[in-house]
Amino acid sequence: MTVKMIAVDMDGTFLNSEKDYDREKFNHLYKKMCEQNVRFVVASGNQYYQLKSFFPTIADELSFVSENGAYVVSEGNEIFCGELDPASVKEVLTILADVEGAHTILCGKKSAYVNEQEPDEFVEYGNQYYHRLKKVPDLLEVTEDTLFKFALSFPPEKVQEVLQQLREVVGDKVTPVSSGHEDVDLIIPGIHKAYGLMQLQELWGIKNHEIAAFGDSGNDIEMLKHAGHSFAMSNAQPEVKVAAKEIILSNDENGVLVKIEELLKNA
């Protein structure tokens, strides 16, 4: 089995319930990846600046498919940046204003943005995933940035219902997907984690069958279908398990690192 790229989702996949990972084991495996010329890619719906913080000593060596594929950075260099049409941004924000219980973060290349009227607890929650998060008087007035995603928060029991509603109302402008922390992201149609991986594949000359991908949520499905070797966590959503070729240990059982160790041994 020849694997040249390992792509991991973060929340619910690489990270355990404590939002951390076995750093000693990962560092050992990362050295082996480097020795075997295997690229390690972080593929997440979260913000680039937040993702970097998990790898303080090697962030500038790694590649990040952040914001569900909308912003791809490799070794500190921007590879791809998507952009939502400004008219669509305004239209979607107007629609979201009428969705009961919706809390919205507008995501851009420079920063993410939240209305200053949002409750403090939601802003604190947003800061977990967006290390650059600015309060603004009105999201409709955010124009000095490249905008590429909406991150929405709802009560967990309403997520599936809201996903369906949003697909019907905004599905022609943005694509609603579930994220690893039981929220909903609205992403650019056709721009997803698999698209982000393709940008890196072109850069490095890596084929689909040389990719191993790991995920647990709806925003991982395209990536898992794209990769030659795809793994869903045992804690993954049902439709994600269907999309993957193999189901592995959960995120709280070191599932990703156990499987990476196995892949590197069999290389």
Notes on the structure:
It is a single chain. With 267 residues, the chain is an alpha/beta fold. The chain folds into two domains: 5-81 and 191-266, HAD superfamily/HAD-like (Rossmann fold, 3-Layer(aba) Sandwich), CATH 3.40.50.1000; 86-187, Hypothetical Protein, Haloacid Dehalogenase-like Hydrolase, Chain: A, domain 2 (2-Layer Sandwich), CATH 3.30.1240.10. Helix content is 34%, strand content 24%. The strands form two sheets. Strands 5-4-3-2-1-12-13-14 form an eight-stranded mixed β-sheet, sandwiched between helices. α2 packs parallel to α10. The longest helix is centred in the N-terminal third of the chain and has 13 residues, at 23-35. It starts with a strand and ends with a helix.
Which keywords apply here?
267 residues; alpha/beta; Rossmann fold; Hypothetical Protein, Haloacid Dehalogenase-like Hydrolase, Chain: A, domain 2; 2 domains; 8-stranded mixed beta sheet; 6-stranded mixed beta sheet; globular; magnesium ion binding; HAD-like_sf; Sugar-phosphatase; phosphatase activity
> CATH class of the largest domain, anyone?
Alpha Beta
The helix content, as a percent range, equals 25-40%
CATH architecture of the largest domain: 3-Layer(aba) Sandwich
> How many individual helices?
10
The main sheet orders its strands as: 5-4-3-2-1-12-13-14
Radius of gyration: 18 Å
Strand elements, count: 14
CATH homology-level superfamily of the largest domain: HAD superfamily/HAD-like
Q: What is the 3D form? A: globular
Give the domain tally: 2
Proportion of strand residues: 15-25%
* Chain-averaged pLDDT: 94
Q: Note the main sheet.
A: 8 strands, mixed
Protein name: Sugar-phosphatase
InterPro entries: Cof, HAD-like_sf, HAD-SF_hydro_IIB, HAD_sf
GO molecular function: magnesium ion binding; phosphatase activity
Pfam family, one: Hydrolase_3
